[in-house]
Amino acid sequence: MKKNKGIIFTGFVIGLISVLLVKAGNPGNMGFCIACFLRDTAGALGLHRAEAVQYVRPEIIGIIIGAFVMSIAGKEFKVKGGSAPLTRFVLGFFVMIGALMFLGCPLRMILRLAGGDLNAIFGILGFLSGIFIGVQFLNKGFSLKGNYTLPKTEGYILPSVAVILFILLVAFPSILLFSEKGPGASHAPIYLSLISGLIVGVLAQRSKLCCAGGIRDVIMFRDFHLISGFLAIFIAALIGNLLLGQFKLGFVDQPIAHTDGLWNFLGMGLVGFASVLLGGCPLRQLILSAEGNIDSAITVLGLVIGAAFAHNFGLASSAQGPTSNGKIAVIIGFIVVSLIGYFNIEKSSEVEIKEAVEIEI
Amino acid sequence: MKYKIVDARGRSCPEPVLMTKNATIDNSNVQVIVDSSVAKENVSRFAINAGYKVDIKEEKDSFILTLTK
């Protein structure tokens, strides 16, 4: 239990900050949403032209910089990559397609439930099912193979991009695109968002919090460490929402959500499935990318390009519900992720385990 | 003492734990080599839960975890 303290504290802080960010201007139940915020940032850069969702979210910048600084301070900054990068890009792409079908990453899914949005229940059931499917592939020997040490400079690129984005946001906003109405126009003050991101980045880096990993570890190893953080987010956000009057129980008229249960289920199912094969949810990928994990940085790029495609080709859902293009994309996603799962099953793990070798200690 | 050797360097989460799980299935003593602190934490948490004593040695960029019952 003592070992779980750090991650429970992290979960609590993330839950509370998320509620406060909504109070300060972020869209409903969207104090944090890694998928939505990457999508908004892609929009601000003109990678898609959905006018309602364009804004450089300082939370994302804060998370990257917070995790980067913390990993250097804790001597955990290690620049590595080369573990099936393009496969990871594709998995990241389809995580985003699934997330924008549901309208949220796993973190926002839990925040939606904590705000009383019962549609999230279908998302959670889908997420659990997706993770369960992914775990079957892991148990069969799914692996994206090992990574390698890369030049240090490689690891500085993403944090540098984050800093440049922030400079653009505060000093040269005219070259970026900003929503005038819609979710992209709802946001907390820039510095409050940035500081919130920094705190979450620091804590999530220290505690290794991961939404997909929590459920995966319970299924695979009966290990409740990671999931305790996930539950702490829910409890803190629930209490915060009740105290601030932001809690509204029901299915209809929930902020940035639709009521199509089947596609909420399938969207998050795809997110869970692909996230388990990647080894972590979008938040965890973002944190890892800041600690020098280039494979995760490629995954984040996959998420960003996935968001751009989702809006350029009408795949993303809206409050009116899913689109037929989006449904096709989610089905394609399941097929592609299954094929990736199948073709990356290692025939045998014997190579890795040498029986009873004498070792001097 | 005899050990099984699990080299999980370069493997990302949760593979090191899964490899350790497979190696400890018959309760044998195992040495696990990992190269990230998250893998170190995950493997030792798993091993302790499975009733092992865990000894951790840091060597250059790697951690050697000796799991004994």
- SSE run of chain A: HHHEHHHEHHHHHHHHE
Most extensive chain interface and residues per partner: A-B, 38 and 33 residues
Count helical runs of chain A: 14
- The CATH homologous superfamily of chain B is named TusA-like domain
Q: Kindly report the spatial arrangement of strands forming the biggest sheet of chain B.
A: 1-2-4-3
- Rg of chain B to the nearest angstrom? 10 Å
DSSP helix fraction of chain A: 55-70%
Would you write up a description of this structure?
The complex is a heterodimer of chains A (361) and B (69). Chain A has 361 residues and is mainly alpha-helical. In chain A, 63% of the residues lie in helices and 3% in strands. Chain A has helices at residues 5-23, 34-44, 58-73, 85-102, 106-114, 119-139, 152-171, 190-207, 211-221, 225-244, 261-278, 282-290, 294-312, 324-343; strands spanning 80-81, 148-149, 353-358. Chain A has a two-stranded antiparallel ribbon. The longest helix of chain A is centred in the middle third of the chain and has 21 residues, at 119-139. Chain B is an alpha+beta fold and 69 residues long. Chain B has a single domain (4-68), classed as Translation Initiation Factor IF3. Chain B is 32% helix and 36% strand. Chain B contains 2 helices and 4 strands; from the N terminus they run E-H-E-H-E-E. Chain B is globular and about 25 Å long. Chain B starts with a strand and ends with a strand. Strand 3 (353-358) of chain A pairs antiparallel with strand 1 (2-7) of chain B, so a sheet runs across the interface.
